[in-house]
Amino acid sequence: MKTRINKPSRSNCSIRLALLINSQILLWIFSSALTLILLVLLLLLPGLSTRVQAESLSVKSSSLPVAVIISREIKPFIEMVEGFESAFQSGMDQPVVRIFIDQNSNPFSPDPLYRGTHVDNYSFIIAVGPSALSYILKNSGLDQDKSSQIDNSSKIDDTTVFRLGSKLKSNINSFNTARKILYAMVLNPETIIPKGVALCGISLNLFSEDTFLKITDIFPSVKKIGVLFNPANNSDWFNYAKKIGVFNKIKTVPLHIREQADVNRLNQQDVDALLFIPDKTVTSPTIISHIIKQSIARKIPVIGYNSFFHKSGAALSFILDYRQIGEQMAYKIIALSQKEFAYRESDHTKSCEPTDPAYHITLNRSVVDLLNLELGSMLPSELMVEP
């Protein structure tokens, strides 16, 4: 008996072929979709990773206190710190640790949150005064010139490549350290901060181009002004200010005061006004009062930089507002804390442009009347007239 074999019909073959084709199409669609998803993930993951890292850095930074290292416990420094703490803690939920420098240049603090002076222990460190700035630069390894490069004539071999890599790593570490250090209440900080180290801060360099413009706005008759300073202390500042055009609108004459005998020679100078700038040689109240009395006798107005000059008879005084300087620093720290792009060097530099210290101008009305000085028609809005 023969077994009968049923041959597949044409319709069944067509159905099987259609199913096979459809399954191949579905498989192709699925694999294409999977490939597309993988490509999208590959594109997004680096950005997600960077964002997660930035957010983790931000959280880590904001969980740390801000350290304020104070050079000396003197009234101007403490006023600045009080202004900083008040403004900062009203905008940020972060503690502030006060750290002091003793006579042996050793840091100490009664604050229980004090963890030494290493930058990694704080979100930011603010150096108040020159001693604190010098200390933190040395303690952080930033007290050396970072701008030097490997000699271009050096042979490029494996050793040189290794040295270049080590230097690049060192520069990155230096930047990461420097971006957390700020300074305030420092006169001529460029004499303390090494070349190649970019720090954010507020100096006590009060006399800028804007300051001299305000002097001429107040006293239009002042065309030539004598600037008193010891060249050992401020010749670099004077030459730099001249180079960048600070004195463009007024003629300046450097009057060098190296010792007591130089004071007596000021009577021989042909100037329209005398300007005191912060200089450790010319800080004696006796010398200042003597120069002011001599100048009034010669009908020459004196311009000073604190309330003592005003009380001693200066016609005009640019008075630093130490508490407001602290507020300026608080706003700077808050801005740096809230900007993620501050992690990049170029944007960090952009967000840390130099800031002039806060001040107000006081006019001594009785001295102005005594010297019969003419006042300008467009006086600065911040000018305060006092007897």
Can you offer a commentary on this structure?
- With 387 residues, this protein is an alpha/beta fold.
- Helix content is 46%, strand content 16%.
- The protein is built from 12 helices and 13 strands.
- It has helices spanning 10-62, 75-91, 130-139, 158-178, 209-218, 231-243, 260-264, 285-297, 307-312, 322-338, 345-351, 365-371; strands at 66-70, 96-101, 107-108, 124-128, 181-186, 200-203, 224-229, 251-256, 273-276, 302-304, 316-320, 359-364, 383-386.
- Strands 8-7-9-10-11-12-13 form a 7-stranded mixed sheet. It has a 6-stranded mixed sheet with strand order 3-2-1-4-5-6.
- Helix 6 links the parallel strand 7 and strand 8 (251-256).
- Helix 2 (75-91) runs parallel beside helix 10 (322-338).
- It is elongated, with a radius of gyration of 33 Å.
- Mean pLDDT is 80; it is low at 1-5, 45-61, 148-156, 160-173 and 340-349.
Layout: helices, strands, pairs:
Blueprint: H1 10-62, E1 66-70, H2 75-91, E2 96-101, E3 107-108, E4 124-128, H3 130-139, H4 158-178, E5 181-186, E6 200-203, H5 209-218, E7 224-229, H6 231-243, E8 251-256, H7 260-264, E9 273-276, H8 285-297, E10 302-304, H9 307-312, E11 316-320, H10 322-338, H11 345-351, E12 359-364, H12 365-371, E13 383-386
Parallel strand pairs: 1-2, 1-4, 4-5, 5-6, 7-8, 7-9, 9-10, 10-11, 12-13
Antiparallel strand pairs: 2-3, 11-12
